[in-house]
Design goal:
This protein folds into 2 domains: about 180 residues, Leucine Aminopeptidase, subunit E, domain 1; about 300 residues, 3-Layer(aba) Sandwich (Aminopeptidase), CATH 3.40.630. The strands form 3 sheets. It has an 8-stranded mixed beta sheet with strand order 7-8-10-9-13-17-14-15, with helices on both faces. A 6-stranded mixed beta sheet has the order 1-6-5-2-4-3, with helices on both faces. The chain is built from 15 helices and 17 strands. Strand 11 and strand 12 form a beta hairpin. The protein is elongated and about 80 Å long. It is an alpha/beta fold. The longest helix has 29 residues. The chain binds ligand BES and zinc ion (2 copies).
Length: about 500
């Protein structure tokens, strides 16, 4: 999606112009005054949220079609509504089979929000709303329409107009990161293997971004017994993918770690067959990390120079049953020496993350870190698909991430992580067990509690995105499949470092 910031006058020509309309009178610029008056006169113009109208203009007019997208009450306006409205405009324009279209945002549609935030939300809506997974088919996919948009915000002074243009640009970059993540996440497991994911990661390298990939031999040398134990049952070799995004003058590191199970059959503790195909999405933590570095590589931070270098570590593996797969009861040793009794081979995410966290700590000594993982079915039961769970050992960091999630409209909801939960994952046969007793409940917290042993006293937060990664209600900028969740949150967080 090509997005350009223009003046209202420049927007008001061409095949299709969409205007965002809250309830009540609006100032949408001189050029739209007449067409809008005409549209209102038909009696067909609705301004309730998501109401779409299309008004053909007389021959010879500068605009061929005027589209209207309702925003509803002004007081209830927020960035998520703007994001959805922009996505709707793109989708309506696409149906018209126009190559490009314009979007006009009256002052009254900006709801007193900062101009940069308005720009971001609109660009994100346009990019996310235009996303389709290009499934492999015999027939090639048809030509895409409405792939370029001119966007005009009415009534801004020079500084605000600049902020708006910057928002458009940064929002588009962040959303392209999310769309990149969605594309990886939607791939079936036979197409996106750990090796294929590593190849995709390598292609992101350049500029300030370095990418390194460790194979199983290198991981064996580092004694990553927990990660390699998970991978044993698969023909697909595991990969550890490492990103380093360095900013001149930055001191110290911040690490982001992702669970990258390209498929999770459960292993010997095999999952039921119903909806097992969805375990293609078990790499969405890794997807979020890939999306973040895609965005960083393309300039998501604008002129902001983070004071910390950003490190990404992805544990990519496949969890399969096999004659050589690890068994329930096996004891493995993680890179930092902790021994783990694998009571359930389906609790594999925490095993691969344990070694990825050890790796980040040993080689980068991060000042803080977070991990993202589709870790537990329990978080879906507790919180559903419209938010992710977050927990950690440092409230300041948890609050930072919750704030970043708010700005991105990707809500995070905190779950507890206490000493009693940590005690639940101690084992008689090893230092730790990879599950607590089902009698304890708190399945999501148990996953976090297990990880906390590998984190030690580094400030850390764990995002369980099993619900948020896929399966939410469609909402204009999300039409199904993988959501690409957490990429925009991580970009916002990186912008605060
Ligand atoms: N990948 C799953 C978690 C999951 C479940 C993600 C449903 C998305 C939707 C994870 O590896 C897993 O299987 N976790 C187990 C843990 C249990 C054995 C303690 C689970 O949640 O059942
Ligand atoms: Zn599992
Ligand atoms: Zn899993």
């Amino acid at each position: 999606m090509k997005i350009r910031s223009v003046t209202a006058a420049q927007a008001c020509r061409g095949e299709a112009v969409f205007v965002l309309l809250p309830d009540g009178r609006v100032d949408s610029g001189e050029a739209l005054a007449e067409p809008l008056k005409g549209a209102r006169a038909t009696g067909d113009l609705k301004t309730s949220f998501r109401a779409v109208g299309l008004f053909h203009q007389p021959k010879g007019a500068a605009i061929r079609r005027l589209g209207t997208i309702g925003l509803g009450g002004r007081r209830e306006l927020d960035t998520e509504k703007l994001r959805r409205a922009a996505a709707l405009a793109q989708q309506r324009a696409e149906k018209l089979e126009v190559a490009s279209f314009a979007l006009v945002v009256p002052k009254q549609a900006q709801a007193g929000l900062a101009a940069e935030d308005v720009g971001r939300a609109l660009a994100e809506g346009l990019v996310l709303g235009a996303y389709r997974y290009d499934a492999p088919r015999k027939e090639r996919a048809g030509k895409r329409f409405a792939t370029a948009a001119k966007v005009a915000a009415v009534g801004l002074d020079r500084r605000a107009a600049q902020a708006f243009a910057r928002g458009l640009q940064l929002g588009a970059i962040a959303a392209e990161g999310a769309v990149f993540a969605r594309d990886l996440e939607n791939q079936p497991a036979n197409l996106l293997t750990p090796t294929a994911m590593a190849a995709k990661a390598r292609r992101l390298a350049g500029g300030r971004l370095k990418v390194k990939v460790l194979d199983e031999r290198a991981m064996a040398k580092l004694k990553m017994g927990a990660l390699l134990g998970v991978s044993r049952g698969s023909r697909q070799p595991a990969r550890l993918i490492v990103f380093e995004y360095r900013t001149p003058g930055a001191k110290g590191n911040v690490a982001v770690v992702g669970k990258g199970l390209t498929f999770d059959s459960g292993g010997i503790s095999i999952k039921p067959s119903a909806r097992m195909d969805e375990m293609r999405y078990d790499m969405c933590g890794a997807g979020a990390v890939m999306g973040l570095f895609h965005a960083l590589r393309h300039g998501a931070l604008g002129t902001h120079k983070p004071k910390k270098n950003l490190i990404g570590v992805i544990a990519a593996a496949e969890n399969m049953p096999d004659a050589d797969a690890q068994r329930p009861g096996d004891v493995v040793r993680a890179m930092d020496g902790h021994t783990i009794e694998v009571l359930n081979t389906d609790a594999e995410g925490r095993l691969v993350l344990a070694d990825a966290i050890c790796y980040a700590k040993k080689f980068y000594q991060p000042e803080k870190m977070c991990d993202l993982a589709t870790l537990t079915g329990a978080v879906v039961v507790a919180l559903g698909h419209e938010c992710a769970g977050i927990m950690g050992n440092d409230q300041t960091l948890v609050d930072e991430l919750i704030a970043a999630g708010k700005r991105a409209d990707e809500p995070l909801w905190q779950l507890p992580l206490w000493q009693c939960h940590k005690d639940q994952v101690k084992s008689k046969f090893a230092d730790l067990a990879n599950i607590n007793s089902p009698a304890h409940g708190n399945g999501s917290t148990a996953g976090g509690a297990f990880l906390s042993y590998f984190v030690g006293d580094t400030p850390w937060a764990h995002l369980d995105i099993a619900g948020a990664a896929y399966g939410a209600l469609p909402k204009d900028h999300y039409t199904g499949g993988a959501t690409g969740t957490a990429v925009r949150t991580l970009v916002r967080w990186a912008g605060s470092l």
